[in-house]
């Protein structure tokens, strides 16, 4: 598709049941993409096909209006109907397609239960917190049985304490319903937890497209590199507890603080900031549980700190930010073996979309 006045030219295919994250800086074309898919914006050229039905074909003069597309846009704000109860809000989608009141109410109850909001059914939006309202909005979107769910930064307007719970909720309902979804986000955790695949858009063009782990662990675009300015090691969670605190991947073993949805044997990632890493020439001793053998690949000045780029035994790229004085004391140069040490309390373990979540049949 092409939107000439915004200089946006994008080609994108989605597999049924696949969740694709769209990342990019402000003005890159992410919102334009969602608007075209939702039917809120007519492209200048292009063709859009959803489940075999042509929604847009500019050359043939085809443009299906939004209410007939079987697409649903879940925005940053819940935008519930203020005069309706939560149950009636969720039932609105089925009712608008001609479903009987009884069946629509049954669908609403089913989806309210799916998002753990049954007890909120009788409340009006003014009686709901931000997180509760967004859960109702998720239920309303899914009750419409969309062929394509469009998520426009659904966690961005929520309190930092509420967003993780909604992220886990979306992860569960998207996995359980094998829903095809396009997620626009600026948050690396949204992509890691929800998306099978990640697309990076810059200046109206797709500059990266691949499995989420590969795009974020080995970025090839300026934006993805900035976004991934955090150590990320992907692997498999291990342990015996309900939320294992160990990750094995890329030749490294890391201990950290697990999210509630991390499971033994499940795909996960370990994230830690470069500032949390201490660098040693010899195997370290002391309190940090994570001692990582690495080879220095680059020493880069970054103003007040020096970034030490290194490679783990399995090829994982990791880096540390230390002072110039520390670099001088350690006499670090490319090719030199070293040790990175990081406390387990500084490492977050998060479940990620991956082998445990299969796209549905094409």
Automatic annotation (TrEMBL):
GO terms for molecular function: ATP binding; ATP hydrolysis activity. PROSITE patterns: ABC_TRANSPORTER_1, ABC_TRANSPORTER_2, MOP. Residues 1-228 form the ABC transporter domain. GO terms for biological process: molybdate ion transport. Keywords: ATP-binding, Molybdenum, Nucleotide-binding, Transport. InterPro entries: AAA+_ATPase (IPR003593), ABC_SmlMolc_Importer (IPR050093), ABC_transporter-like_ATP-bd (IPR003439), ABC_transporter-like_CS (IPR017871), Mo/tungstate-bd_C_term_dom (IPR008995), Mop_domain (IPR004606), P-loop_NTPase (IPR027417), Transp-assoc_OB_typ1 (IPR005116). Residues 285-351 form the Mop domain. This is ABC transporter ATP-binding protein.
């Amino acid at each position: 598709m092409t939107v000439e006045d915004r200089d946006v030219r994008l080609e994108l295919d989605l597999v049924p049941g696949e969740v694709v994250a769209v990342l990019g800086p402000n003005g890159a074309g992410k919102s334009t993409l969602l608007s075209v898919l939702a039917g809120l914006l007519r492209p200048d050229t292009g063709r859009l096909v959803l489940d075999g039905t042509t929604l847009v074909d500019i050359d043939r003069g085809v443009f299906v209006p939004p209410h007939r597309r079987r697409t649903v846009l879940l925005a940053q704000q819940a935008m519930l109907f203020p005069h309706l109860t939560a149950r009636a809000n969720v039932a609105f989608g089925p009712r608008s397609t001609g479903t009987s009141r009884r069946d629509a109410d049954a669908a609403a109850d089913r989806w309210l239960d799916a998002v753990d909001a049954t007890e909120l059914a009788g409340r009006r939006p003014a009686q709901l917190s931000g997180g509760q309202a967004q859960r109702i909005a998720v239920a309303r979107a899914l009750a419409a049985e969309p062929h394509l769910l469009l998520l426009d930064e659904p966690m961005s307007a929520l309190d930092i304490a509420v967003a993780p719970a909604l992220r886990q909720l979306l992860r569960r309902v998207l996995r359980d319903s094998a829903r095809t979804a396009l997620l626009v986000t600026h948050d690396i955790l949204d992509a890691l937890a929800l998306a099978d695949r990640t697309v990076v858009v810059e200046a109206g063009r797709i500059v990266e497209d691949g499995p989420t782990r590969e795009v974020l662990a080995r970025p090839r675009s300026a934006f993805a590199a900035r976004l991934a300015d955090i150590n990320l090691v992907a692997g498999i969670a291990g342990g015996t507890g309900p939320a294992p605190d160990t990750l094995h991947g890329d030749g490294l073993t890391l201990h950290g603080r697990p999210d509630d949805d991390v499971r033994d044997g499940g795909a996960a990632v370990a994230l830690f900031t470069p500032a949390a890493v201490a660098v040693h020439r010899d195997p370290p001793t002391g309190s940090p549980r994570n001692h990582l053998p690495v080879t220095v690949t680059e020493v880069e000045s970054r103003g007040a700190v020096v970034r030490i780029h290194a490679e783990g035994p399995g090829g994982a790229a990791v880096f540390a930010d230390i002072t110039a004085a520390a670099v001088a004391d350690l006499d670090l140069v490319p090719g030199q073996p070293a040790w990175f040490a990081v406390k387990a309390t500084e490492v977050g373990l998060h479940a990620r979309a991956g082998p445990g979540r299969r796209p549905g049949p094409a």
